[in-house]
Amino acid sequence: MSELTRFGVSIDSELVKKFDQLITKIGYKNRSEAIRDLIRERLVQEEWQEEKETVGIISLVYNHEVRELTDTLTDIQHRYYNLIISSTHIHLDKHNCLEVVVVRGKSGLLKKIAEQLISTRGVKHGKLAMTTTGKEIK
Length: 138
Ligand code: NI
Known about the structure:
Mean pLDDT: 91
Helix content: 40-55%
Low-confidence stretches: none
Strand content: 25-35%
Strand order of the largest sheet: 2-3-1-4
Structural class: alpha+beta
Distance between the termini: 29 Å
Largest sheet: 4 strands, antiparallel
Number of helices: 4
Bound molecules: nickel (II) ion
């Protein structure tokens, strides 16, 4: 592990109060831990922009009875089969399905797949969460 650096930060008291309440709720033991995670998260976002290897989790909730919806979602996934690592389908109830698609590649492409899936007519809720290995992609 690299050595630790201490630095002082001036922040508006109200803002710190809210921040402390939030991190207590989340379960952080102290501010340093929470701030380190925030910095790491921001750095991860930067790396996506630098087109490092990115892994995305796309979640979709939809009603499988909507005409052609299931076919359309499958067609889109077959178009990008080389980027899809895994997909899981869960029948939530009589009508609703949850589909989780794990993708790996350049962040721009992953966003494109997610947008196509999420914008398909009949998808009630969709979300893309991304993380990175930090590895360069050629
Ligand atoms: Ni289902």
